[in-house]
Amino acid sequence: AELPAGALALEINDITFGYNADEPVLQNLSLQLAAGRVLGILGRTGSGKTTLARLLLRLYDVQQGEILLGGVPLRQTRLRGLRQHIGMVTQDVQLFHASVRDNLTYFDRAIDDTHILKVLTELGLASWYQSLPAGLDTILGSDGEGLSAGEAQLLAFSRVFLSNPGLIIMDEASSRLDPATEQLIEKAVDTLLHERTGIIIAHRLSTIQRADDILIIEDGHLLEYGPRAQL
Ligand code: ATP
């Protein structure tokens, strides 16, 4: 089945999952996230936050229960279609030895340069872009060699923004960036989440304040879940 365009609602119905069937990592987890809302997920290391993100991307299928995205059960989606609708931003940014343009578009020639430049500007990379010797044709080193951590992160955001997904999943870095970069990232996150559904595996206080709903997981169980204002 095809997923609808635009922000995607998420419904998780009583899912249980373990990498080994007899060792559940997530147990009887349920939640509903309306289209356009932002969910912050908190929990100790090993509580199952990343596992939940992997289930949404269908890197694994749940053993029990059901996940629906945009009203469509994940099991009925084509993997390729699904992953075009979900943008994932993690702490380690995957950049490759190719032009800035190709890094941002994954070689999709349908995305024109004007659009790319607009996105770079919106996400705070205008002055970085102006410093490039060959503009969008500038070749990046592999693994983001030559870029600061903040620039690499903002490029990852730009890439996700260009792919225009209906759901964004962010696994935030807990390491501190300098205050100016931090501020740029904060602003970029706002731009990215505008009119999209978002899930943030949260490590920063500022992100938790941005979330509409909060889920606290402990050992794979839902500990608390609801609108942020009520927790
Ligand atoms: P962190 O905050 O450290 O990223 P997390 O809350 O994201 O932790 P998960 O990475 O989802 O936690 O891990 C949950 C549990 O699943 C842990 O006990 C972990 O050891 C286990 N686990 C994670 N990935 C695998 C895997 N590929 N195979 C087997 N067990 C795994």
TrEMBL record:
Residues in domain ABC transporter?
10-231
Q: Which domain of life is it from?
A: Bacteria
Cellular localization per UniProt: Cell membrane
What protein does this entry describe? Helicase
- Gene source species: Dictyobacter kobayashii
Source species taxonomy: Bacteria, Bacillati, Chloroflexota, Ktedonobacteria, Ktedonobacterales
What stretch of the complete protein does the chain hold? 333 to 563 of 584
